[in-house]
Amino acid sequence: MPRYFLFGLVRVPMWEYYWGHTKAQIELMTIDVPLTLFKKDRSGKPKPGEKGYKPNPKKLQEAVERWKKRKEDRKKRGFSLSKFLNTGEKIPVDDNRG
Which is deepest, 6, 40, 73, 75, by most CB within 10 Å? Predict the structure, then answer.
């Protein structure tokens, strides 16, 4: 954030960075980055999108059934996307979703 002196006549850019923080704080800002570690898949099986991947039909059918059930539940609750977008009506939420 710039600092202004002499009623705005003199502008010092990055004043907070250079004179507001200590060297230790600046070093922490530069090295403090998020670290995400993903679990390594050691099975050697191809992943979705890779050559040789074959989806499990049972899991696909279960996913379709869950989707159909959620769609029917939305119809029962009377949810309308156009009504939500046009009027800002709240979405009825079911806490028992699976």
Answer: 73
C-alpha 96/C-alpha 75 separation (Å) is: 16
Token reading at 46: 């191809």
pLDDT tens sequence across 17-74: 667 778 787 787 777 677 777 777 788 888 878 888 888 899 999 999 999 998 888 7
Report CA dihedral (95, 77, 66, 41) to the nearest 10 degrees.
-50
pTM for the structure as a whole: 0.38
**Alpha-carbon span 23 to 53, nearest angstrom:** 51
